[in-house]
Design goal:
CATH class of the largest domain: Alpha Beta
Distance between the termini: 61 Å
CATH topology of the largest domain: Aldehyde Dehydrogenase, Chain A, domain 1
Oligomer: single chain
Helix content: 25-40%
Shape: globular
CATH superfamily of the largest domain: Aldehyde Dehydrogenase, Chain A, domain 1
Strand content: 15-25%
Number of strands: 20
Bound molecules: nicotinamide-adenine-dinucleotide
Number of helices: 14
Largest sheet: 7 strands, mixed
Radius of gyration: 22 Å
Length: 480
């Protein structure tokens, strides 16, 4: 192993305030509820005290969004709305380093990911949907916005999930009330400042912070026309029940348990990089993470030995260090969940191997881990661990690979590694997954729709398809 001198990114660029209010009607207000702390998961340092929005606050936010919708935003031409979205996109680029550093501090993800993946895709999303704002008549989904969108997002990609929600909603002429996750509110609040800087009309974007109760209050508010949720399947089901019988339009982006399938003709070194990227990117806190490796039996030993060698070089530690590959687990609760499922994996008879690495004394950490000898019946093969833990299964034939890959309640994504184009196409047709990557993994682009089958949810985000969720489809023959 090589020794590296630390190369930490300075945090001087971010100005974290001791306390934050709610962003309602274009201003930061105190709110009527209590408050909660947000913590740096790499150090356990308390970063700030953040307002917990009550039902009354949520109601204020929805009213502000309704006023802005009726009086300003829905009346504005698409070309005018686009100017605001382009402005927001440019400010995100200008303040990219600040956003990346803050995201890494509040979330625990490595700076090289927040800087080179999250923030650039966030800006790209706003640019992309800015382009649609004056072209909705070509969308195929009509041009009529829905009204007020209530949006609830998770902690794994705080800013990116915000962009996936807010950019298409605004482009289509809706206004929004968005709640970030309770462990990662800070970049959403910085985004609120960016909305002020962009002179976005008050009430078009409202950010309310809080936990599950605040989320419940948003999705059940009678004046919310559209609910957009990204998070766990369990909460997604609760939301589906809560809105059943109302005329709210709903999209749910939920959990996953993706199969990353490696055939014996695949370029193995590249496949190993893809496996590492698939499961250790963002500490494995990725809904579409390649958490089940299906490797063809004839190359299984070779792949495992190359994979372990590669895993031993992963640098785990300070998220702000530019050398870091794997950062901190986002919260003590998530760490406990990963530990519990890993212990179950061992007790069920799978063989555990963790990369040798020194973990920092403070903060929440979990060494990159792989389980071999996993069978379909094991809980680690069925449940979403949402951490840097890979389960390895083997297969002999393409049909067996398809059967094992599809043997899951989820259906968000899959990866196929092979030299044969025809095999890629036939696998993609047979895999029940919203996204199938071929000889790559975890690639995201604003032009490409993303979403799941089965318990991974319904609706698509990204691309032209992502507009459907925010428009009242008045095209001939469509459901109104
Ligand atoms: P979570 O479901 O616990 O929380 C998500 C959000 O919902 C948070 O903001 C939370 O405060 C809020 N919430 C909790 N209870 C609620 C309720 N009853 N009503 C309304 N809102 C409520 O999920 P998490 O642990 O934050 O995120 C991890 C999960 O998100 C994983 O399962 C992951 O697969 C999924 N995810 C999916 C996608 C996707 O695009 N499919 C993307 C990212 C994450």
């Amino acid at each position: 192993m090589f020794e590296y001198a630390p190369a930490p990114e300075s945090r001087a660029i971010v100005d974290i305030k001791p306390s934050y209010g709610l962003f309602i009607n274009g201003e930061f207000v105190d709110g009527n509820g209590t408050s909660f702390k947000t913590v740096n998961p790499a150090t356990e340092e308390v970063l700030a005290e953040v307002a917990e929005a009550s039902d009354v606050d949520v109601d204020e936010a929805v009213k502000a969004a309704r006023r802005a919708y009726t009086r300003v935003w829905s009346r504005m031409s698409g070309a005018e709305r686009a100017k605001y979205l382009y402005r927001i996109a440019r400010i995100i680029q200008e303040r990219g380093r600040e956003l990346a550093v803050l995201e890494s501090i509040d979330n625990g993800k490595p700076i090289k990911e927040s800087r080179d993946v999250d923030v650039p895709i966030v800006a790209a999303h706003f640019f992309y949907y800015a382009g649609w704002a004056d072209k909705l008549k070509y969308s195929g989904y009509g041009e009529t916005p829905l009204g007020v969108a209530g949006q609830v997002i998770p902690w794994n990609f705080p800013l990116l999930m915000l962009a996936w929600k807010i950019a298409p909603a605004l482009a289509c002429g809706n206004t929004v009330v968005l709640k970030p996750a309770e462990t990662t509110p800070l970049t959403a609040l910085l985004f609120a400042e960016i909305c002020q800087q962009a002179d976005l009309p008050p009430g078009v974007v409202n950010i309310v912070t809080g936990a599950g109760d605040t989320g419940r209050s948003i999705v059940s508010h009678p004046d919310v026309d559209k609910v957009a949720f990204t998070g766990s399947t369990e909460v997604g089901k609760a939301i589906a029940r809560a809105v059943a019988g109302s005329d709210k339009k709903v999209t749910l982006e939920l959990g996953g348990k993706a199969a990353n399938i490696v055939f014996d003709d695949a370029p193995l070194d590249q496949a190993v990089e893809g496996i590492v990227n698939g499961i250790f990117f963002n500490q494995g806190h990725v809904c579409c993470a390649g958490s089940r490796l299906l490797v063809q039996e004839s190359v299984a030993d070779e792949v495992m030995s190359r994979l372990k060698r590669r895993m031993a070089t992963l640098r785990v530690g300070d998220p702000l260090d530019k050398n870091t590959d794997v950062g901190a687990i986002n919260s003590a609760e998530q760490l406990a969940k990963i530990r519990e499922l890993s212990a179950i994996g061992e007790s069920e008879g799978a063989e555990r191997w963790s990369a040798p690495c020194d973990l920092p004394a403070n903060g929440y950490w979990f060494a990159p881990t792989v389980f071999t000898g996993v069978s379909q019946a094991h809980r680690i093969a069925r449940e979403e661990i949402f951490g840097p833990v890979l389960s390895v299964l083997t297969f002999r034939t393409p049909s067996e690979a398809v059967e094992k890959a599809n043997n899951t309640p989820f259906g968000l994504s899959a990866g196929v590694w092979t030299d044969k184009g025809s095999r890629i196409l036939s696998m993609a047709n047979r895999l029940r997954a919203g996204v199938v990557w071929a000889n790559t993994f975890n690639k995201f682009d604003p032009t490409s729709p993303f979403g799941g089958y089965k318990e991974s949810g319904y609706g698509r985000e990204g691309g032209r398809h992502g507009l459907e969720a925010y428009l009242r489809n008045t095209e001939k023959g469509a459901d109104a």
